[in-house]
Amino acid sequence: MYTSFIILSIVLFVNNNLSVWAKEQFNEDLTLRSLSDGKLLAHFNFTTHVDVINPVPGASLHHYGLFPKVIGQVLQEYQVREMHLTFTQGRWKYDEWGYPPEQSTGTGVELWAWMENSTRVDNQWKSLTNTLSGLFCASLNFIDETITTEPTLSFQSSSSSSFEKNNNILLRYGSLPHESVCTENLTPWIKLLPCKAKSGIAELLNAHKIYNSNFHSMSIHAKSICANDDCTRRIMELKQTETSVLDPVRETSRRDWSLKEVFDRVLHGACPVADNSRVHIIQDDSNAKLSPELNNPLKGYDLKEVHDELDIRMTWSENSFHYPLEPAYPIISANRYFTGYGQERGGLEITIHNRNDKALPVIYYDSIPWYLKLYLHTLQVIVIDEKTGQQQLKEKGDIIRDMYYQPAIDRSRPTMLECQLLLPAKSIVTLSLDFDKVFLKYTEHRPDANRGFDIGSAVLTAQLPNENHTIRVYTDTLLVSLPTPDFSMPYNVITLTCTVIALFFGSVFNLLTRSFQIIKEEKEVK
Amino acid sequence: MLKSFFYTLIAWSVLFTFYVNGFSPSKEEQIEGFFSQSGHTNNWAVLVCTSRFWFNYRHVANTLSMYRTVKRLGIPDSNIILMLADDVSCNPRNKYPATVYNNAARILDLYGDNVEVDYRGYEVTVENFIRMLTGRVSPDTPRSKRLLSDDRSNVLIYMTGHGGDEFLKFQDAEEISAYDLADSFEQMWEKKRYNEMLFMIDTCQANTMYSKIYSPNILATGSSKLGESSYSHHTDHDLGVAVIDGYTYYNLDFLEKIDMTSDKTLKELFDSYDPAKIASHPGIRSDLFKRPLDQVKVTDFFGNVQSIELTRERYPLIGADDDDNNEMNVSLYKYIYQNIIEEERNASTLHLEEELVEKETIQSEQKQQFRAFNVKREEKSFIHWIQSLSLTALFGFIATVAFGFIITSSMSA
């Protein structure tokens, strides 16, 4: 009897060590912050973390618990190390709101992924965009080779695992500035959460309120990385964030807010599978009164202790809200715009403000579609010193330390311009380029051709002083009107030509072949 | 006299028994009645809105109303292909963001919280539509964008937008003609991609769009005939646009009163069309459709209803291991399967760890699966047949005997 017991325990011990073991963790938190211009910034953050130990090296995960199976399978099928997908509508006002909690604020859809290096990378990127388009009900399949770029300096992989061989992964970036975001994109995003929208912080995600805001951005950051050399330990992480800037002043002309008024919902407790579920309130203004009271402002409200209802309310004792006159400028901000006039040529300018005391290196990334032909030799750098207001045309080498330029190939790939700039202290640097507009074939225009074409945001990557992470600053998207033909002209030409030919041919044929003969009429006999 | 009496008695009783037996349905007929008359096993819906721009709000509302109806009557999102050419619910001009209404009273939000739009914006093109219908999509196309119907699927195709004589305009840039549509349906028929199809179209001069269809089992209906325009029903003055078209409004009027258990037929739906109210003459084309319209249920196309019939008899279940009849004994299969696995394992050279893992998984699967039951089969014996004869049969038999006796006695008398 004892021998069988010993054998059984050995068998179980061996089983435990040799089977696949996965540890899953889910955390959720909400950060609410009242901005200086009376708006409310709500940032939802859901993180699912899986630590898989698999005896077979390099094997993929097959058992899914909290981690959504669709994302896990997508990452493993297309050999994606890291994927970032963001859906944004609205403009993030850097001048008034500072830097966002989540970096990607370019309007439309932005997708970038670090993928394993292989000969099939481009096919896998295409499959990835198509699969994600089906998953999120967005037309991500339009991110094809005419939009995709491979940035070299920007969008570095955030995984700092030294075991991954970083020269074996490739970056692909694509963005669709004109993609709309609506409930059909939010619904599959919510379905990736373990508790969906039934409990926890995700209960507040009311589409009718979120899509009624000044800015909203919803993103998925997924990672699948090996944690040791032979890849028997794998870490998979899914971070879902939703950032909204809501405007209580628009409804009531007061900046008082409560969860019930802003989201039309209240919190009923934590998600049962969450390890941590918290609501943090960042209070910048000491005049504001927060209810219910917070014992520890750093820790916020713990939803695990809430059993019936939690409605957070912040009130001010003023009569109505007065907008602040002075915006709070951030250290780095950028502004990109078109110059010139007409439908033949134009110019592109980007103005970068550096309000720091010291010179700051910044990486500027821009991707222009092929139908704007940029001329790199017209690149000019102008620096305006903030103190003196003096403007000088600088030698390119002074400001531009490094440049990667990919010229466009018609209907095949876009222009990509990446510069490493050293911005002087307290200055405004302007880069300008000229371009020609291409006359497109009439089938290449969109159905609403007179609207024009959208150009995706430029991205500035910088490491701010006193911060240990890089930030990305996005410029606005631009709208360019290319020479648009009159689409009724083919019909007009066909009709006119056919009429002319019918008349001309008909008349000439008649003239040539018709002959008149005299017919004698017989007189009737009376 | 006695001989003739007996002959008559036997003849009458035999005839009567056969006659009475014909009334109680045999097992085969009972099972046949379980499946619906049309022979379809699943339902698909393809809902297309082809118009772009804010002022075509009503076309998006039409399509979303049909989406809501079809979902309410049971067709899941995986079987619905929804194509919306423009986004009106999150359009900056929409006073009520993330909502679409089909009525100025604004009681019902069609967009809701759980909408799945498969093709949107610039993806709604004639090429994508025809590729989706015929199944000739690129290999990367995700599953939600494919029409995965088979030869037992009833497909509902609803299209709305701006159209004319034998054409339908897609997004202000291209057109699909009635011939293209007819050829696509013929390809679908040849590839066995539908069992029966209901084609519904709400545009100006809509009846011309289905005039060229030549494939079997297609029922078509349109909102207006050649030379007539279709009109919107009413405007919401807060939104500033018309919110629903007349033809679709009256269709919904009928369909909103239906639920999954309804028995209403398509004939009743088509009879409810009033050209005076709709302001145009809707048409119906049923020459290619085999079944008569008063036998086609509305839920055959608009819902996903499985026909359920209750039986009078109970089916007793016995434990699989108690069943002596070995051909259906599940535990016997389990035993055979285990033996096969044992043999394979002994023959190959597996590592110890993998064996243990496999053994563990097999054991856990066995624990989950094998709680099986068999249906107790009836023993076919004469006594059971006698017992199964219904009361009417017995009464009829006695009545025949008595009647025969009376007749023969009166004849011989």
Counting DSSP E segments of at least 2 residues, the number of strands of chain A comes to: 24
The proportion of strand residues of chain A reads 35-45%
Report the average pLDDT across residues of chain B: 84
Strand order of the largest sheet of chain A: 5-4-3-6-7-2-1-9-11
Q: Using only CA atoms, what is the Rg of chain B?
A: 30 Å
Spatial gap, N to C terminus of chain B: 10 Å
Largest interface: A-B, 37 and 36 residues
Helix/strand class of chain A: alpha+beta
Keywords (chain B): GPI-anchor biosynthesis, Membrane, Signal, Transmembrane, Transmembrane helix
Signal peptide (chain B): 1-22
Family (chain B): Belongs to the peptidase C13 family.
GO molecular function (chain B): GPI-anchor transamidase activity
Task: Characterise this structure.
The complex is a heterodimer of chains A (526) and B (413). With 526 residues, chain A is of the alpha+beta class. Chain A folds into 2 domains: 19-316, no CATH class; 332-480, Sandwich (Immunoglobulin-like). Helix content of chain A is 19%, strand content 36%. Chain A contains 10 helices and 24 strands. Chain A has helices at residues 2-18, 69-77, 94-97, 121-136, 183-191, 207-210, 248-252, 259-263, 396-399, 489-513, and strands at residues 21-34, 40-53, 80-90, 108-116, 169-176, 215-226, 233-246, 257-258, 276-282, 289-291, 301-302, 313-315, 332-339, 345-354, 360-368, 372-385, 391-394, 400-406, 415-423, 427-437, 453-455, 459-463, 470-474, 478-480. In chain A, the strands form 5 sheets. A 9-stranded mixed β-sheet of chain A has the order 5-4-3-6-7-2-1-9-11, covered by helices on one side. Chain A has a 5-stranded antiparallel β-sheet with strand order 13-14-20-16-17. The relative contact order of chain A is 0.13. Chain B is an alpha/beta fold. Chain B has 2 domains: 2-25 and 374-412, no CATH class; 37-302, Rossmann fold (3-Layer(aba) Sandwich). Helices cover 38% and strands 16% of the residues of chain B. Chain B has 13 helices and 14 strands. Chain B has a 7-stranded mixed β-sheet. Chain B is extended. The model of chain B has no long low-confidence stretch (mean pLDDT 84). At the A-B interface, helix 1, helix 4, helix 5 and helix 6 of A face strand 3 and helix 11 of B. Chain B: This is GPI-anchor transamidase. Chain B: Keywords: GPI-anchor biosynthesis, Membrane, Signal, Transmembrane, Transmembrane helix. Chain B: The active site is at residues 162, 204.
